[in-house]
Amino acid sequence: MIETVATVESNLEITPGYRLLTLNFDEEVEARAGQFAMLRARASFEPLLRRALAVYRVAGKRQLSFLYQILGRGTEQLSFVERGGEVEALVPLGNSWPVEMPERSSVEASRRAIVVAGGIGSASVLMLCEELARARIDTQIFFGAASGRVASGCGLEDFRALGLPLTITTDDGSLGERGFVTAPLERHLRDEVSKKSLRGADSTIYACGPWPMMARVNEIAARFDARCLVSLEAPMGCGFGVCVGCVVAVKTDGPLGYASYRRVCTDGTIFSADTIRWEVNAMSH
Amino acid sequence: MIETVATVESNLEITPGYRLLTLNFDEEVEARAGQFAMLRARASFEPLLRRALAVYRVAGKRQLSFLYQILGRGTEQLSFVERGGEVEALVPLGNSWPVEMPERSSVEASRRAIVVAGGIGSASVLMLCEELARARIDTQIFFGAASGRVASGCGLEDFRALGLPLTITTDDGSLGERGFVTAPLERHLRDEVSKKSLRGADSTIYACGPWPMMARVNEIAARFDARCLVSLEAPMGCGFGVCVGCVVAVKTDGPLGYASYRRVCTDGTIFSADTIRWEVNAMSH
Amino acid sequence: MTGTVNHDPRLAVEIAGIHFNNPVIGASGTFGYGLEFAELIDLNRIGGFSTKGLSSRPLAGTPPPRIVETHGGMLNAIGLQNIGARAFVEEKLPLLERYDTRIIANVFGYSDEDYIEAITILNDGAGIDAYELNISCPNVKEGGIVIGNSPAAAARLTERARRASTRPLIVKLSPNVTDIAQLARAIVGAGADSLSLINTLVGMSIDIYTRRSRLNYGTGGLSGPAIRPIAVRMVHEVACAVDVPLIGIGGIASVMDALEFIIAGATAIQIGTANYYDPRVTVKVVDGLSEYLDRTDSPNIGSLTGSIIKDQP
Amino acid sequence: MTGTVNHDPRLAVEIAGIHFNNPVIGASGTFGYGLEFAELIDLNRIGGFSTKGLSSRPLAGTPPPRIVETHGGMLNAIGLQNIGARAFVEEKLPLLERYDTRIIANVFGYSDEDYIEAITILNDGAGIDAYELNISCPNVKEGGIVIGNSPAAAARLTERARRASTRPLIVKLSPNVTDIAQLARAIVGAGADSLSLINTLVGMSIDIYTRRSRLNYGTGGLSGPAIRPIAVRMVHEVACAVDVPLIGIGGIASVMDALEFIIAGATAIQIGTANYYDPRVTVKVVDGLSEYLDRTDSPNIGSLTGSIIKDQP
Ligand SMILES: Cc1cc2nc3c(=O)[nH]c(=O)nc-3n(C[C@H](O)[C@H](O)[C@H](O)COP(=O)(O)OP(=O)(O)OC[C@H]3O[C@@H](n4cnc5c(N)ncnc54)[C@H](O)[C@@H]3O)c2cc1C
Ligand SMILES: Cc1cc2nc3c(=O)[nH]c(=O)nc-3n(C[C@H](O)[C@H](O)[C@H](O)COP(=O)(O)OP(=O)(O)OC[C@H]3O[C@@H](n4cnc5c(N)ncnc54)[C@H](O)[C@@H]3O)c2cc1C
Ligand SMILES: Cc1cc2nc3c(=O)[nH]c(=O)nc-3n(C[C@H](O)[C@H](O)[C@H](O)COP(=O)(O)O)c2cc1C
Ligand SMILES: Cc1cc2nc3c(=O)[nH]c(=O)nc-3n(C[C@H](O)[C@H](O)[C@H](O)COP(=O)(O)O)c2cc1C
Ligand code: FES
Ligand code: FES
Fold this sequence. Notes:
Chain A is an alpha/beta fold and 285 residues long. Chain A contains seven helices and 16 strands. Helices cover 29% and strands 20% of the residues of chain C. Chain C has helices spanning 85-96, 112-123, 151-164, 180-189, 228-241, 255-264, 274-277, 281-296; strands at 13-15, 18-20, 24-26, 48-50, 67-70, 73-76, 102-107, 130-134, 138-139, 145-146, 169-172, 194-197, 201-203, 206-207, 212-213, 220-223, 246-249, 268-271. In chain C, strand 14 and strand 15 (212-213) form a beta hairpin. Chains in contact: A-B, A-D, B-C, C-D. Bound molecules: flavin-adenine dinucleotide (2 copies), flavin mononucleotide (FMN) (2 copies) and FE2/S2 (inorganic) cluster (2 copies).
């Protein structure tokens, strides 16, 4: 973890409301797939708190990119920083997506990966997809967004460039299948399980997106007995474990006690979906 | 008075810490010498209050320039706004410098003007000097700054370009005479009065600068019986007369009562120096 | 003048029998005598405004510096400079006659008698719709205690003002208290028709080079967005404690802010400090309220008052 | 570890007989158990830190959402999640041993007995330098009244804690009171060695679309630069009222902010929320204090405590 002031290499609009921020660091940063940074435009007095953004790409030992949606005050302030400007950064934070090598010994059922990205949740899984591809794991990507325009903003072209099987859904039907990304996911699992007599358990589902999407992915995974990992979001005060503001409710054996909540920033952001108490939503929106 | 969002034509650094901001308005603005605007970078959340800046130049019916020093949070935020950016503006505000025509009928003693600018107080008097020149009033400019560099930042080149007699002082002696601008002012008045048997009362002194400078100018003016007008500064909440935060203590005949304080923004900013209770400083610094 | 404004009927509210075209009111001390805004906004478009605090006699106020900006807000120690109740009645009210907007006369004094005297003068004024008692001033007679910080003193003053007044009485609460609900109950018990809250919080800012307060007076009142969360909480607490209509105040700078107060329990809201840095904020909020009703399919603004959903106790 | 740090001797301060290398302390609830900062700053460089509030038993805290940002600050309703006094003594203290920094154990409970129990456990811990009583929790036994808002209840608890404690006792004041000087006098009268102030102000923020509080708990504590002017005023008031050393807290984010509190009357200061968005702020303030002493030719930081110049009463 380094705490530093990074310099903006570029801060490009991808589509209106979506930008790619590339930062240069004066030290080496080793960020793994799924990790994040806490960022804040240096010269701004408001808002105070840094904002969590997933590391979208590692462009070198001292360069990281972030894909972000302009949502409120913090991301708006970030959007104003231009090339040469400064961004306060704490990075890398959180755990990372675990990628296992397929068990080549087993001939019949090689392990497979399913990546589900909802909206800007995509930013957390691009590097994961790259890693899965490098590890030659059979990978299916399900990419959902509100519209075709939003899909572009969420990095669709970068996902396409991976050359992995990619299913797109949009809420308004302007691109790919109309509806939620969980619909083709469910179909896919059903088909796979029936057609190839594979067990759901042979698949690992990696999901990042809005809370309701991830809750639904968890249900589907449970039904098909698939392993499911989710990267969670929560409002973050610090990003490094001290404010205890970013917790999620997790399942515990005993009564509700100290262990009932875990910090998204340091105990996560990636959790096994079946450990989360999905009915207790960490976000207020 | 118009309340609008102006667009930045340019925001140029003159010397480090000093900038010239040129704004385009969507309506006509008629600003007279000595008037000011309340400005705030549009996209910034902090600081909240707009900052008062004198109208430095009128560049057309819909274009005004402001010369400013980067001092704290507000002017720093302004300095970040680039061409095409937006600035919230309330303008024109306050009264203006009165310029009388010389009494040509009197052969012996034509009226004369003395303009005293201290630091960035210069921003309030450039247009005044232009007007005095246009009216062919015999005008002397005394221009004081902390250093030669600061003098440039305070628009010295623009004052030089007027072609009027100009005496420069700097606190550190890096340009012109070393010391405060009030020293040559005093000398000048003494010489004028003795040499040409003019009365001080034939001169109008126009002064804008730091509070101690103006207090001293007032003393000198009083001694030589010259008319003296000052443009005051005060921390301003609103700029249009409602917060009653920007007051200065003025002399009253009766006991201290409602009339003891006057608002710099709407009753001024230009006051007759002899009406001010100089010992009650409006600024905390 | 009314004819020129098309009021959204869904925004009309009533407080103590007074009809407001909409719930957006300029806050005392930030809206002058109303006229200062005539060049900036159409005064007919806002629900009303509360005057700068009026005392029985004109007051000079405190020496400068009087204001200092802080993070998210400002401190002021104006010392209640005002033209006096008599001058307001004679010089300002006639000029305000032509506007269709509610005029609330904000009143204060340094003793109960001071308040009564000011109210008596204002009773003569045509066009005043209600009084708002600013009870956050130190009472010189009682050794400088702030009337508004003591439920007993505040109730006593409310009762006397109620009797002296020919108009509905709004009492403005001080937030500088341990238990604002208790204060509110005492004041409503004493006859207040409505409560407005909050006034400023007492604060201080020191210049580290001169080692003096940045305000000549020493302390000042903190206002602006910085205090909004405290104000929303207090409005919610008071809404749970009393039954009179509330006017929410404190750091409102946008329609979203205004709605927080209404959902927390306010019938109307006042905008203070934001008028300084966004002089047309009041009319922007009026427009924003109509849009919100459209977007959320709400029948009228009254249906939102106190509509907060509580899952937790 | 001490050998590696060259402390500026002018910054040393003493509170209740404890020596601090400098007056900069991490505030409770924002500095974890100290160790979380070991990767970010050299813990030997700060005066000390106050632990996350410790209770007699581990606590789960409240369900999320627990924090929401506001203008110039944030609201939190963590519900005092902590590992418990026993785990702190056994698991954290041994790891903290190697740092030359003062450790203040922040203690709280829902009844007097709870506090005493936690203190009794902590008395066993080696390396704790002082206790800081967080008296801003609602007392379940007394029907939810907040101990810290009642001078009598706060004095009673202080007295009992004083007797149970083997270490200097700092009591942390709640700002949600009408008269903080009165509260301070009662607590000092009951035996507190030092006071720290302020804790958070109670606030609320409402999501206008869900119409629910943005915090699961409903209300939360407001912290950050927004509250600084209130905190500075209260430190100044308390400094005029009592004679024990004060620790100033509330919205400190820079050396200038810290100096405001010291000039107002604080011997030391705590930095809270700013640690979240500027994790190295504590050491930056330490360096800034030395520079200020240089620039103003002040002999030491103690000479600045309470050095405010007052022209007005
Ligand atoms: C670990 C992590 C990684 C993230 N990675 C990315 C990323 O790569 N790209 C990206 O665009 N966004 C990402 N987010 C979300 C991003 O942090 C939020 O969009 C941002 O904090 C919103 O800040 P704001 O000031 O723009 O909005 P605010 O003004 O703070 O809020 C605007 C709206 O967003 C909601 N909001 C506030 N905080 C969050 C939050 N932490 N997450 C989601 N919504 C929030 C508010 O409730 C409000 O409705 C990530 C969040 C987390 C926790
Ligand atoms: C009528 C008027 C016209 C002005 N014209 C110009 C101009 O043309 N060019 C220019 O550079 N400046 C001008 N000023 C001064 C300018 O308004 C201040 O420099 C500015 O408000 C400082 O804001 P800030 O946020 O940068 O500093 P802050 O962070 O607010 O303060 C930094 C320092 O400046 C002091 N300060 C705060 N407000 C003022 C103030 N109003 N005046 C002076 N010092 C202040 C503070 O006490 C502090 O020491 C004018 C002021 C007035 C009242
Ligand atoms: C400069 C100034 C002067 C004020 N004068 C008065 C006053 O005379 N009477 C009064 O009741 N409130 C007065 N107030 C308080 C406001 O009406 C309002 O209650 C407070 O500022 C909080 O609202 P805001 O955050 O929107 O400003 C004043 C506030 C400011 C900033
Ligand atoms: C998330 C959070 C948790 C806190 N927890 C505690 C606590 O456990 N005990 C305590 O005495 N104060 C606690 N505080 C209060 C701080 O120690 C401090 O008094 C307050 O935040 C004001 O200082 P600041 O503005 O610098 O944050 C907490 C504050 C925050 C923001
Ligand atoms: S964001 Fe502070 S603990 Fe996770
Ligand atoms: S700045 Fe508000 S009255 Fe002058």
